[in-house]
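Handout, section B. The chain below has 161 residues.
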Amino acid sequence: MAEESSRGSGGRPRKGVCALDLGAARVGVAVTDELGMLAHPRGVIAAKPRTAMLAALKELVEEEDIGRIVVGLPLDMRGTEGEAARRTRDLAQQIADATGCDVELVDERLTTVQAQRALTDSGLSAKKAKARIDEASAVAILQAWLDARAERRARRRGGRK
């Protein structure tokens, strides 16, 4: 699945990537900057009703010119999948169907911890940090994905200038 396979308005390749931290009540959202190097928070979307969440994601994809959606996959600490991962896989397929985007599942272990630390380090009160944890987790998922992609690209270039 090449990134350039998704098309935006006017038939040009979409460049944006969006990450989702799926929760029972809220879905944290993050999107890439124009250069595709940094993740930025885009708030949360209500997880229920499901049809409204999928419609909101479709609208986000159109507004932000998104071509790929990265979804956090909840693995246990041994790296194995349980019921939550199965539900996430099912929802990821629904998201792909609703938005027309390529959807990629990525290990989200420890992203909530990473997000909580970042919010605490930023000086937010515990109450304000709790309200922003979902989008901060989405940012952590997306930034990890972007960093891994940049590293893979650098290895492929292998020193070519």
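Note. The first helix runs from residue 50 to 64. Compare this with the example in section A.
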